[in-house]
From TrEMBL:
Protein name: MFS transporter
Keyword Transport listed: yes
Domain Major facilitator superfamily (MFS) profile: 16-404
Domain of life: Bacteria
Species assigned in the record: Streptomyces poonensis
Keywords annotated in UniProt: Cell membrane, Membrane, Transmembrane, Transmembrane helix, Transport
Topology of this chain in the membrane: Multi-pass membrane protein
Subcellular location: Cell membrane
Statement: the UniProt record of this protein carries the keyword Glycoprotein: no
Gene3D superfamilies: MFS general substrate transporter like domains
Signal peptide range: none
GO molecular function annotations of the record: transmembrane transporter activity
PROSITE patterns named in the record: MFS (PS50850), SUGAR_TRANSPORT_1 (PS00216)
C-alpha cells in the first residue's frame, strides 16, 4: 500500500539549516542522550542509599517519579510538535533536560534528587513525540530506519548510560558530579544544534486544545495499537525492575558492592535489546513482535531460578535473553505502528505508545517498592518477574488472535493497519 508522503522542510529564509540526513542522525544522537541520562543514575542508587540511609522503597520512588513525570508530560505536550513544529519543542525540552541535570548535580538529599528526576521526566516527555515523529519525517520514503533508531537508540542509550554510570560510580573521584556535569553539557550542546534542524511540521491550529491531558490513538491505527499493547507492557515492565532495583539486586545476589558490576548487569538488558533491533532489523514486524514476546517468556522464566538459587551465570544469561525479547517485541510493534501513522498525527500516536510504555515502566516499580518492606527484596523480585512472565505469555495468543480478526475484517474493506504486519524492513537512511 502507499505510504505517507515525505514531509518537506519548511522555508526558513536564509537561516543556516542542517541537511535532512544530518538532522536525522542528530535526532538519533539526541534520543540516545535522553535515554542515557535516564539510566545513568541507576548504578548511583545504591551509593545514594548508603550515603543518605535510604530504604529500597525510596529508590523505587526516585525511579518512578521520573517515569510518572514523563507520563504527565506526554499527556499534556506529547502532540505539541504537531502544532508548533518539531524544532522549538525539542530545543525547549533539551534546555529543560540541562536544568534537570544541574539540579541533580547539586543535590544534597533525596528531595533534590526527586525534584531533578521530575524535571527530567517532564523534559524527556516533551522531547519524545518530537524526536520520534521527526525521525519518521526525515527518513527516506518507505525506510524503516526511523523506527529502528527509535528502538535501538532508546535501548542503546539506556545501556550506555547504565554502563557509563557504573564505571564512573566505581572509579571517578566524585561520580555524581562527573556524570551530571557531562550530561548538562551534552544537553546544552544538543539544544544549540537543534536550532539548525530543518522544520518538517508546519504551524497548525489547535495548540491550546492539544494541551488538554488525554490519550488518543488515531482511529486508523487503533487495531494495530491494540495488538501492540501487550508486548509494550511486558517489555517495559521488566525494564522497570532492572532500572529501579537492578543495582540492589546485584548486590544481594552477586554479593558485591562493585558499582561497575551493577552497571554491567543493568546495561545488559537494554544492550541486548539494542543489538537485537540491529541484527533482526530485516525481520517483518509481526513475527519480530511475537518472537520478542516468546523471548521475554524464556528470559523471565530463567530469571526465577537465578533469583532462587541464586546464580550469577543464570542471572546474566536470563538478562540477555530478556533483553533480546525487550528489543524485538518493542521494535516490531513500533514498526508496525510507524508504517501506518499519518504525518499530522505521528507525535500524537507515538506519545500514546510511550504513555503505555511508561505506565508499565513505573507502576509495577512503585508497587514493588511498597511490597519490599514486608516481603523482602528477593521475594518481591520473584513475584514481579512471575507477573511479567504471565503477561508476556498472554501477549502471544492475543497478538495472533488480534491479527486474525484484523485480517478477517480487512477482507472486504482493507485497513491501513493490516498491510505492514508481514512486510520486511527497508533500513535505508
Amino acid at each position: 500500500m502507499p505510504t505517507a508522503p515525505r514531509p518537506q522542510p519548511l522555508s526558513g529564509g536564509r537561516a543556516l539549516r542542517l541537511s535532512r540526513a544530518t538532522a536525522f542522525w542528530l535526532l538519533g544522537v539526541t534520543q540516545l542522550t535522553f535515554m542515557a541520562a535516564s539510566s545513568a543514575p541507576s548504578p548511583l542508587y545504591s551509593e545514594y542509599a548508603r550515603r543518605w540511609g535510604l530504604p529500597a522503597t525510596a529508590l523505587t520512588v526516585v525511579f518512578a517519579v521520573y517515569a510518572l513525570a514523563l507520563l504527565v508530560s506526554l499527556l499534556v505536550v506529547g502532540g505539541l510538535s504537531d502544532h508548533l513544529g518539531r524544532r522549538p519543542v525539542l530545543t525547549v525540552a533539551l534546555v529543560g533536560e540541562a536544568a534537570a541535570m544541574a539540579v541533580m548535580l547539586t543535590a544534597g538529599g533525596v528531595d533534590q534528587l526527586i525534584a531533578g528526576r521530575i524535571i527530567q521526566g517532564l523534559a524527556t516527555g516533551a522531547a519524545t513525540g518530537a524526536i520520534s515523529a521527526g525521525m519518521i519525517d526525515l527518513q527516506h520514503p518507505g525506510s524503516k530506519l526511523g523506527p529502528l533508531l527509535n528502538s535501538a537508540g532508546a535501548a542503546g542509550g539506556m545501556a550506555l548510560g547504565a554502563l557509563a554510570g557504573g564505571v564512573l560510580t566505581q572509579y571517578a573521584p566524585s561520580p555524581h558530579t562527573v556524570i551530571f556535569a557531562l550530561l548538562t553539557a551534552a544537553s546544552l550542546a544538543l539544544a544549540a544544534a537543534a536550532l539548525l534542524i530543518p522544520e518538517t511540521s508546519p504551524l497548525r491550529p489547535g495548540t491550546l486544545a492539544s494541551l488538554q491531558p488525554r490519550v488518543s490513538v488515531p482511529h486508523p491505527d487503533r487495531k494495530a495499537f491494540l495488538i501492540a499493547v501487550p508486548p509494550f507492557v511486558a517489555s517495559w515492565a521488566i525494564g522497570g525492575l532492572y532500572f529501579s532495583l537492578g543495582s540492589s539486586l546485584t548486590a544481594d545476589i552477586l554479593h558485591t558492592g562493585n558499582h561497575l558490576v551493577a552497571g554491567l548487569v543493568v546495561a545488559l538488558l537494554p544492550g541486548a535489546a539494542a543489538l537485537a533491533c540491529i541484527v533482526l532489523r530485516g525481520m517483518a514486524p509481526l513475527p519480530m513482535m511475537l518472537s520478542g514476546s516468546a523471548a521475554l517468556v524464556v528470559g523471565t522464566l530463567v530469571t526465577l531460578p537465578a533469583l532462587l538459587l541464586p546464580s550469577t551465570a543464570l542471572l546474566l544469561g536470563a538478562t540477555v535473553i530478556a533483553g533480546f525479547g525487550f528489543g524485538t517485541a518493542f521494535f516490531g510493534a513500533f514498526r508496525m505502528l510507524a508504517h501506518t501513522a499519518a504525518h499530522e498525527q505521528r507525535a500524537q500516536l507515538f506519545s500514546a505508545v510511550y504513555v503505555v510504555c511508561y505506565l508499565a515502566n513505573s507502576i509495577p516499580a512503585i508497587a514493588a517498592g511498597l511490597v519490599i518492606p514486608t516481603a523482602g527484596l528477593r521475594d518481591t523480585a520473584i513475584g514481579y518477574v512471575s507477573a511479567v512472565t504471565v503477561l508476556a505469555l498472554l501477549s502471544i495468543p492475543f497478538g495472533i488472535s488480534a491479527l486474525r480478526r484484523t485480517k478477517a475484517a480487512a477482507a472486504d474493506s482493507p485497513l491501513p493497519a493490516t498491510a505492514p504486519l508481514l512486510e520486511a524492513a527497508d533500513t535505508r537512511p
